[in-house]
Write a structure and sequence with these properties.
The chain is α/β, with parallel strands linked by helices and about 220 residues long. It has two domains: about 120 residues, Rossmann fold, CATH 3.40.50.2300; about 90 residues, Winged helix-like DNA-binding domain superfamily/Winged helix DNA-binding domain (Arc Repressor Mutant, subunit A, Orthogonal Bundle), CATH 1.10.10. About 45% of the residues lie in helices and about 20% in strands. The radius of gyration is 18 Å and the shape is globular. The structure holds calcium ion.
């Protein structure tokens, strides 16, 4: 995991805590160093502070996302709604507001790195014909044969909706399934991810909003 944090005391406690929890943590304190580290090889998770000495964390988030699909968790004191939504729209997978507990941070890391293989077995996802194919085993999405790059949470969200075309999933059920049961963010998080997926699929009609309820996946044939 890569920790991008310029506050040495916070960085030290995160490194010590996560290392103690059995995770490998590399630490850099500037945006430049983070970009260099990512270009050398993607870590499994990036923990990203927004207030960095050499660049804005939101710009860095966007730049990291352009280089890699690595799960990004923004770790910041800037907890207002605007930053949360912006961060998620720029490709972050989750957001932890300082001060946070090690337990909370660890839970978020586990949630974004959780692979859905177990879920796939339980729910019985099967390959099916159609323009859009979501393969839970390889976590690859193709549209008309072309691979679509999605972040971890975007994939989980699309896979969930795609699993039952036409079924309207309630917002609360989506948040609970795709994020986790203790998710306390607003449904703006969900809206930001829906918007990002629609953009990547090139047509908003794949995922349709049902007012007052939630969202459904619609098989488009043209
Ligand atoms: Ca900082």
């Amino acid at each position: 995991m890569l920790l991008v944090e310029d506050d040495e005391s916070i960085a030290d406690s995160v490194v010590v805590g996560l290392t103690g929890a059995g995770m490998e943590v590399a630490h850099v304190s500037t945006g430049r160093a983070a970009l260099d580290a990512i270009s050398l090889g993607a870590p499994d998770v990036v923990l990203l502070d927004l207030g960095l000495p050499d660049m804005d964390g939101l710009d860095l988030c966007k730049a990291l996302r352009a280089l890699s699909l690595v799960p990004i968790i923004i770790v910041s004191a800037r907890g207002d709604e605007l930053d949360r939504v912006l961060g998620l729209e720029l490709g972050a997978d989750d957001y932890v507001v300082k001060p946070f507990s090690l337990r909370e941070l660890t839970a978020r890391i586990k949630a974004v790195t959780r692979r859905s293989l177990g879920d796939a077995d339980v729910l019985g996802f099967m390959p099916r014909d159609g323009r859009l194919v979501v393969d839970e085993r390889t976590r690859i999405v193709t549209l008309d044969g072309t691979t679509i790059d999605l972040t971890t949470k975007e994939f989980d969200l699309l896979a969930y909706l795609w699993s039952e075309p036409g079924t309207v999933f309630r917002r609360s059920d989506i948040l609970e399934h795709v994020w986790d049961i203790n998710w306390y963010g607003t449904t703006k998080t969900l809206d930001a991810h829906i918007a990002a997926i629609r953009k990547k699929l090139g047509n908003p009609d794949w995922i349709q909003a049902v007012r007052g309820v939630g969202f459904k996946f619609v098989e488009l044939t043209v």
